[in-house]
Design a protein that fits this description.
The protein is an alpha/beta fold. The chain has one domain: Alkaline Phosphatase, subunit A (3-Layer(aba) Sandwich), CATH 3.40.720. It is built from 16 helices and 10 strands. It has an 8-stranded mixed sheet. Strands 3-10 form a two-stranded parallel sheet. The protein is globular. The termini are far apart. The relative contact order is 0.21. The structure holds zinc ion.
Length: 377
């Protein structure tokens, strides 16, 4: 009996890997909807910025954001991301210099993209942006069931589909998306709610990112969530509208919002030096022909949800391309991650963040993509 027990004990010791060492107590995951890697790494595109059809403010954006070197242009457009996140952390996605990342789902639009990022699972049955409750579970929902995370996950988004992506009916995760908070928690949130009523909403399903941003900051400071997701949406909608100038101005504004998030965290006792920031996008956009920058969607998606783009017979080529960046304790200070012939998939983000938090992702969901070791310290 003792021998059998000894064998069992040593066997289980052998097959059960120890849980990862927690590198940070908190994570803030941020997405900018459909901001192309091209602008992130080379700044504004001259052909697009000077195109009559796509701008009413060419002079302004050329003066404000055009520089002769692509590095200088990129830093001028996204100063916080370049000068702080890229310099002090790690990033991937500059395809001009051998750094590749992409979505793994087959569709290249938002719901499948966000579901992949948040759940770590590629479920190609998620093939539309319709308001269907997600059959997969986000890392926020999974963590909420773990000791130390109960009630400590929250999401803020401009797009009104997020309550379905998080399946709030099942998960109970706090999701503030598109609409104001039902019960403003303080005077500041009452003011936000009043402005929500008084300022016209720019799109039928997407609000101004300023609301998303300020509700998120307010909640972080008050409720101290351990995992916060913030999804900014303006970049994608201005692009669909064909307004390159506004797309650029929105990208620059969102960089400022992200800086504000980071500075807020670093000035808080609860978050300082124990919080990881992870930034990515849900899909890329096209490049050729020139007007393809407005769109995204795979060839396969054009037979279904994206059939309004059927004229692009090959789909919107390149719209699977994304980029990722991270900063904070447990994140390697590698700067650019080169990937050779490989391409890092968005389905690996959830496991990466869970590992940073000291959680065993395989125990939470073995179908997740594996952690991106290049990001880990
Ligand atoms: Zn879109």
């Amino acid at each position: 009996m003792k021998v059998i027990l000894a064998i069992l004990v040593s066997f289980s010791f052998y097959i059960v890997a120890p849980p990862p060492v927690r590198a940070a107590d908190n994570v803030v995951l941020i997405t900018l909807d459909g901001l192309r890697w091209q602008e992130v790494f080379t700044g504004i595109d001259r052909d697009l910025a000077t195109h009559e059809r796509f701008n009413t403010q060419t002079e302004f954006i050329m003066e404000r954001f055009w520089r002769n070197s692509s590095q200088n242009r990129a830093e001028t457009l996204l100063p916080f991301i370049h000068n702080t996140v890229f310099k002090e952390g790690s990033y991937v996605g500059n395809r001009n210099i051998g750094s590749c990342s992409a979505v793994t789902n087959e569709w290249y639009f938002s719901y499948p993209g966000y579901s992949e990022i948040l759940t770590g699972v590629v479920n190609n049955a998620i093939d539309s942006n319709a308001k269907n409750p997600n059959p997969e579970r986000t890392m926020l929902e999974l963590l909420d069931l773990q000791a130390g995370f109960e009630g400590k996950t929250a999401a803020f988004a401009s797009w009104d589909v997020f309550p379905f992506i998080f399946n709030t009916k099942r998960s109970g995760v706090h999701v503030n998306a598109f609409h104001p908070e039902k019960i403003p928690a303080d005077q500041f949130e009452e003011t936000l709610t009043q402005l929500h009523k008084d300022i016209p909403t720019p799109w039928a399903t997407v609000r101004n990112d300023a609301f998303t941003h300020h509700y998120a900051i307010s909640y972080i400071l008050r409720e101290k969530p351990r995992v916060t997701f913030i999804s900014y949406g303006e970049t994608d909608d201005f692009a669909h509208d064909g307004k390159y100038d506004e797309y650029i101005i929105a990208a620059h504004r969102t960089d400022r919002f992200i800086q504000d998030v980071w500075e807020t965290l670093q000035s808080s006792e609860s978050y300082k030096d124990n919080t990881v920031l992870f930034i990515t996008v849900d899909h890329g956009r096209g490049e050729e022909p020139i007007e393809a920058w407005r769109h995204h969607g795979s060839k396969r998606s054009l037979n279904g949800y994206m059939n309004s783009l059927a004229e692009y017979e090959k789909g919107i080529v390149g719209s699977e391309a994304v980029w990722m960046a991270a900063l904070g304790p447990g994140v390697a200070k590698t700067g650019l991650i080169t990937t050779g012939s490989e391409c890092i998939g968005s389905n690996r983000i959830a496991a990466t963040l869970l590992t940073i938090l000291g959680e065993d992702y395989q125990e939470l969901n073995p179908n997740m993509g594996e952690p991106i070791t290049e990001f880990l310290h």
